[in-house]
Write a structure and sequence with these properties.
The protein is mainly alpha-helical and 109 residues long. It has two domains: 31 residues, no CATH class; 47 residues, no CATH class. It is 41% helix and 4% strand. Strands 1-2 form a two-stranded antiparallel sheet.
Length: 109
């Protein structure tokens, strides 16, 4: 392992000038993503006119949920949901089905 290595924060503004102050870097990123994600010039776009190149992905199956639970590492800290992997692994057949129901509900929305 290499240990801690400092990173250079190199950010350029709209004019390609170097931005080095942390407050200015945050402001630049905020401005960049604001322009990228907030489209104000779209008029009269209907849902049927939007096409993507992404293939349709089938809904996840209960088997996929079971395999994902099986692959979870034990004896590690739980994630943001605070649910330990051991709890899901010892939940029997009920847990994968309930998680699958939740995933499908989210998938359809």
């Amino acid at each position: 392992m290499k240990g801690y290595q400092a990173r250079n924060n190199i950010v350029h503004d709209e004019k390609c000038d170097l931005v080095v102050e942390s407050h200015s870097i945050l402001a630049r990123w905020r401005n960049y993503f604001s322009h990228l994600l907030n489209v104000h010039e779209v008029n009269g776009v209907k849902e049927t006119e939007i096409h993507t190149t992404e293939p349709l992905v089938p809904e996840p199956s209960v088997f996929e949920v079971e395999m994902a639970i099986e692959k979870l590492k034990s004896c590690i800290s739980p994630g943001i949901d605070q649910i330990p992997a051991e709890l899901m692994k010892t939940g029997g057949k009920t847990i994968p089905y309930k998680i699958h129901e939740l995933i499908i509900s989210i998938w359809k929305k």
